[in-house]
Design brief:
With 310 residues, this protein is mostly helical. It has 15 helices and 2 strands. A hairpin with a 5-residue loop joins strand 1 (147-153) and strand 2. Helix 2 crosses helix 11 (222-247), helix 3 runs antiparallel to helix 10 and helix 5 (67-107) crosses helix 7 (127-141).
Length: 310
């Protein structure tokens, strides 16, 4: 197929995909991905900060309670409050938007009859989920929750670890609308359960639910997803064939040209790593290694690119 015909075919497929009802439906199915990513990133930052807690306290230069140590402690706790607030707020946003997404797209059509049962089982009657939601209200309408440090000593009474905990007594004594499930969670929680463990458990519950939710959407709209994916595969084949046909005729192949023709066809991880790398050598390696995995590219062209850039 001539380059002109390949170009026409590629643009035809692009238009067919972008203007299809299947594409619109799938974009709607993925509408929660943005807030889901915000929630995930907020957990990642919170978890990293909590991991650094023992390191801060056990650092030898702060062995004595100096002014610098107290300032570091104060700064650490202020940043913890901020990260905790962001995580809890984004969790609530994700819950609200998920509920709205279900109601707008599935409830009246009865396409997703098991949704409410899953919500009740996973969240509505779950003490941990109730606690996190009530903690968000506590944050917004009462005050920042008190967090305390507990030291874990070894046999020689040396500090081995430091854990952060909610001050359960302070939370329960503050006039707040704690649900029965939240109170049960606070009363039953193990004294050695750190807030890091609490939020890791909650994060995993949310992740598992949204994996299930997206999987069920793909099952409900299987025909549409299959059509969409088959068109993407066809577009990739045509696009790679077009790129190869053009590059094979060139005396010099530069990285911007390779990027223009092939970057979009790498997998998501490779594209992410490429776009986020600031090292030119690393970017070249990611791009060329990704291209070498594309079976539609002739071996001779891959070898030529590798000889020029690796």
């Amino acid at each position: 197929m001539a380059n002109y015909e390949l170009t026409q075919k590629f643009h035809q497929l692009e238009n067919e995909i972008n203007n299809s009802k299947e594409s619109e439906l799938i974009r709607n199915c993925q509408a929660l991905f943005q807030i889901y990513n915000i929630f995930s990133k907020n957990f990642e930052l919170l978890d990293e900060h909590l991991n650094s807690h023992s390191e801060l306290y056990l650092n030898k230069q702060f062995a004595e309670r100096s002014l610098n140590h107290r300032l570091d402690r104060s700064n650490y706790m202020r940043e913890l409050d901020r990260l905790l607030h962001n995580f809890i707020a984004s969790a609530k946003s994700l819950i609200d938007l998920s509920r709205k997404h279900y109601r707008n797209n599935y409830e009246s059509k009865n396409l997703f009859p098991e949704y409410q049962e899953e919500i009740d089982t996973r969240f509505r009657h779950d003490p941990l989920s109730n606690f996190v939601q009530d903690l968000r209200n506590y944050f917004l309408h009462k005050k920042v929750p008190v967090i305390i440090t507990q030291q874990v000593h070894d046999a020689n009474k040396n500090i081995q670890e430091l854990h952060l905990f909610f001050d359960k007594k302070a939370l329960l004594e503050t006039e707040s609308d704690w649900t029965k499930a939240s109170k049960r969670f606070l009363n039953d929680i193990d004294e050695n359960e750190s807030i890091q463990g609490v939020f890791a458990s909650y994060f995993n519950k949310i992740i598992q639910f949204h994996e299930w939710y997206h999987k069920r959407q793909k099952e409900i709209w299987k025909k549409e997803f299959d059509w969409f994916n088959s068109k993407l595969e066809e577009r990739s084949r045509v696009g790679i064939e077009l790129g190869c046909a053009i590059l094979e005729k060139r005396n010099k192949i530069d990285i911007p040209t390779i990027e223009h023709f092939f970057l979009r066809f790498l997998n998501k991880t490779e594209i992410h790593d490429y776009m986020n790398s600031s090292n030119n050598f690393e970017k070249k390696s990611i791009l060329i290694q990704g291209i070498s995995k594309l079976h539609a590219i002739p071996t001779e062209l891959v070898e030529r690119i590798q000889m020029e850039y690796i």
